[in-house]
Amino acid sequence: MKFSASTLLLSAQAAAAALNNGTNPSEVPYYGLSPPVYPAPVGNGTSDRSWAKAYKKAKALTAQFTLEEKMNVTNGFEGLCVGNTGAVPRFGIPSLCFADAPDGVRGQEFVSAFPAGLHLAATFNKDLMYKYGKALGEEYYGKGIHVALGPSAGPMGRVMRGGRNWEGLSPDPSLAAVAMGAITRGIQDSGVIATAKHWLLNEQEARRRPSVDESTPERRVTDEAISSNADDRTIHELYAFPFMNALKEGAGSVMCSYQRANHSYACQNSKLMNGILKTQLGFEGFVVSDWRGQRSGVASANAGLDVVMPDHGFWGEKLVEAVNNGSVSEERMTDMATRVLATWYYLEQENNFPETTYRSYSTVGDPVNVQADHSDLIREIGAAGTVLVKNVNKTLPLKDVKMVSVYGYDATVPQSPWQNPNRYGGGYEVNFGWNTFNGTLVTGGGSGISTPPYVVSPFHAISDRIAKNKGTIRWDFYSEAPGPHYVNTEACLVFINGYASESFDRVSLTDEFSDNLVINVASMCPNTIVTMHHTGARTVDAWIDHPNVTAVIYGGLPGQESGNSLADVLFGDVNPTGKLPFTIAKKEEDYGELLNSTNSKDFFPEANFTEGLYIDYRYFDKKNITPLYEFGFGLSYTTFGFSNLETAVKADVNMDEFPDPEIDIIQGGHPELWDVVATVKAHVENTGDVDGAEIAQLYIGVPGDDTPARQLRGFERVGPLVPGQNHRAVFELTRRDLSTWDVEAQQWRFRRGTYKVYVGSSSRKLPLEGTITIE
Ligand code: NOJ
């Protein structure tokens, strides 16, 4: 079947319409199709003066490069780091060092373990998001790493059991977008190139890569990777949306993902790379393949891939040959090299960049200590992303307690020597399983893990508090049914966790041992306080209604200061402000088709994103399913009231339906997308009896019935407020916030009409309602 540009457009419209009237969009031709977009746009630095300056220098160099030298800077080579480009000694261009992970420099000593992305998202705190990126960037910089392989907004968390959701930020595009922008800016303000990953639709681990028979000379593919099939509007409004903010903040690198997207491998998908990323979003930097994610030579080059990792993949000398025989234009190859060098200049890495002391997987004896005082920030973010969801009769904070008992292996540090006497505890070893008899979970598994220099366990931090208060602490870390000896202490603190990792998806959101432990303790102890460390949503239906379960905390993946962060909340030094960055269903089945990744035995497996825009809370709203704890929910030790909603539309900006076509696209998209077009204000008052801050949340209902009923479009931390005090939250709405992606016009477009405005403390507790009218 052949598609012309106009059939594509019509089909795209049909796909969008199909989504709205309930037809299965997978039956519509455009759905699952990646229309060809060629040639690859040539980077030119027109986004701003810094890019222009960087491009001028880069172009002057690449004009003198031989083809082999261009090949060098665009290919992976053996070296110190997880990825290394080739050097060009003739011009003093060094090999660039690429290293993981989004929550800390992985596999090294004297580095910090930051909270995971999902934990950061739970803070709903823009200031902390920036500081996180800044501190992380400083650590990369100190180790001489040019390119940080993060932040991640893919997976977003479409599939609740997805193995890598914790590395990303949130299934809500606005929350993820704000975090992506802030982290990117932070990392790059430290002089390190940030890599927004994984572009795009990388929502599950199952069959994310093809199976290759390495014993055959042609490396025969025995199974292709999953194809994530999504319609154009969903791609723009949901999955690409967070990446836009990273680009707006100058992201120098984007990593294309392993799987197929609309049937074309992401690292050779011209629609995604040449089309959306480099044309619509004006990307000036370079696209790097995920590690061994390149599936072709000529096709990937022409589709917009700029750097292959970790080795030559299908390029190397073959790329030079392809240019010599005309399969890839020399202009394309020059552009690839120019993009790499321009990004290097953009970050000013030519000036005194530290020597690379990073060593791939070897951890002994690296003298460079980059931890600085980041532990304070880590502790603060750890507490700020801790979410309190149940607190009966002010069980928490624990005030002047003298005796507590602690249960569950998640309370203590991992017992690695128990598991394997040849292994040390801590460090890289934290990646080795978190089952029974392991320890507290501070990060997940796979390439996205941090490497803690030390771990403050919950037990350690709680012991410290009890010791200071001249109290007594008792514990049983490993029993599933602890004996009754100490259950009449003032509080029974139960710790459970849920592990997940790159390369496989979860099989359950719960585990029997943990649920049994909670029930067993609660059956004897009238004051059972449960803390979960988890890599994503964790359902709690087995025990949440137990009358003896008096307080429940979603403790996320807090990084090295885990216990301190938690104790700060438990003992009331920090009044919690954390909010759930995902929906907790009453039972797993309530997530419906979005519970599991797609498992298929087909040679060409398919994951059909037929739910379109409706993932997480948007799905629950659409299906009218009441969650247990909704997106955005989290308790404080005080209470808040909301009043005085005011909305205003700006008078001094372009309010035409489409952004001005005369204005050029810059990195991040059309500049007018970021214009503030409306403001919303509301008063937040501390109506309780202790000091506290609240995360005020703004949700928008776009006119028309083809869009989620409510979408988060703003969040502001208000406070701390003393009891009785009130403060105004001011939300600024950009053109993009109030637009939908018009598939036909291939533009963001205002919907004329009345937008609903909701302000409150979660996606379902929205006491203030108003409107904004765009005429
Ligand atoms: C594969 C992962 O998908 C990616 O996120 C990571 O950066 C690379 N491996 C390098 O370790």
UniProtKB/TrEMBL annotation:
UniProt subcellular location: Secreted
GO function terms (MF aspect): beta-glucosidase activity
Chief place of localization: secreted
Segments for region (Disordered): 205-227
Signal peptide: 1-18
Entry keyword set: Carbohydrate metabolism, Cellulose degradation, Glycoprotein, Glycosidase, Hydrolase, Polysaccharide degradation, Secreted, Signal
EC number of this enzyme: 3.2.1.21
Biased composition regions of type Basic and acidic residues, renumbered to the chain: 205-223
Pathway: Glycan metabolism; cellulose degradation
Domain of life: Eukaryota
The Fibronectin type III-like domain, residue ranges: 694-763
GO cellular component terms, A-Z: extracellular region
GO biological process: cellulose catabolic process
Family annotation (SMART domains): Fn3_like (SM01217)
Reaction catalysed by this enzyme: Hydrolysis of terminal, non-reducing beta-D-glucosyl residues with release of beta-D-glucose
Family: Belongs to the glycosyl hydrolase 3 family.
Name this polypeptide is given: beta-glucosidase
